[in-house]
Amino acid sequence: MFEILFLGTSASAPSAKRGLSAQIVKRDEYRFLVDCGEGTQRQILQSGIGFRHLTHILLTHGHLDHILGLGGLMSTFLRWEAIEELNIYGGKTTLERVHDLLYGVVLRGKQPPMPLRLHEIKAGTFFEAEDFTVTAFPVTHRGPDCLGYLFEEKARRPFLAEKAEALGIPPGPERRRLVEGETITLADGRRVTPDDVLGPLQRGTRLAVVGDSARTDDLVEAVREADGLVIESTYLEADAELARQFSHLTARQAAELALHADVGQLVLTHISRRYREKDVLEEAQAVFPKVVVARDFDVFQFKR
Questions:
Q1: Do 69 and 170 fall within a single domain?
Q2: 168 by DSSP, 3-state: which?
Q3: Any idea what the Cα angle at residue 149 is, between residues 143 and 152, rounded to 5°?
Q4: Same domain, yes or no: 146 and 236
């Protein structure tokens, strides 16, 4: 299961009720901050999630409404909060801008208060935990090195409790060893193999997070069969020409992507303050019914 907390859902500039782009993807003890718009540190405080485990920041691209909050965040780490390390991931040009912001504006000759690592990444898997991975994929927007992110549980064979009961395997370490692929010997001498109690291999939960994007045809395969798709919806179809001019999507385009990619749930963010939320929702629902418009501090959980 993956959980996502929205900290900022506005496009380009904040509104009275929406901050700038930022969201936290949670998995067990891991916290991934995806983008860090201006004011993100305050949103983190207001959400109650805290700073302690925010050691990984994934940037979709280098536009200011997606990175400017890193300056305030670093300033907070200098004086008020402590974390063990900070890893920032992004494309080459994005990290160049982040380096200028952090080292040229905030630190100005000082050392960061924690080990700070800027990881230049390209399309492909760049983070692997015991039971999930994070993969970057290319996104078309204004400028190079724009990325989306796919959080994916590793495929596994489900444990069939009814078979274990029928074989008389008691709850506890024996069942855990079978799940881990070991053959066990029961007290009466019978040998039980993993194949006796495990079902067919099944893929895990997938959550795709896309920042700003100018098109969707090159995203279909990257987000195919995602259980959750988070993506921008800056414009409505009535302003499709503006969307093309500024390399953004309409609500209808986002919904068409979800439909063609067979997505489980669509979550729209990066909402322009020129529109009413209900109009954005209605346009998307006409194409793809399983859609919501995220608000600041909304939390969604995604399961396979």
A1: no
A2: coil
A3: 165
A4: yes
Element (H, E) at 125: strand 124-128
* CA 121 to chain CA centroid, nearest Å: 16
Rounded distance between C-alpha atoms, residue 259 and residue 265, angstroms: 10
- Whether residue 183 sits in one domain with residue 129: no
Which of 154, 167, 137 shows the shortest CA–CA distance to 261?
Answer: 137
Domain range enclosing 71 = 2-155+203-302
Per the annotation, the verdict on 65 as an active-site residue is yes
For 260-294, the pLDDT digits (tens) are 999 999 999 999 999 999 999 999 999 999 999 99
pTM value?
0.91
The catalytic residue among 35, 65, 145, 227 is 65
Token pair for 229: 């798709």
Q: Kindly state whether residues 121 and 244 are assigned to the same domain.
A: yes
Q: Are 19 and 8 in contact (CB under 8 A)?
A: yes
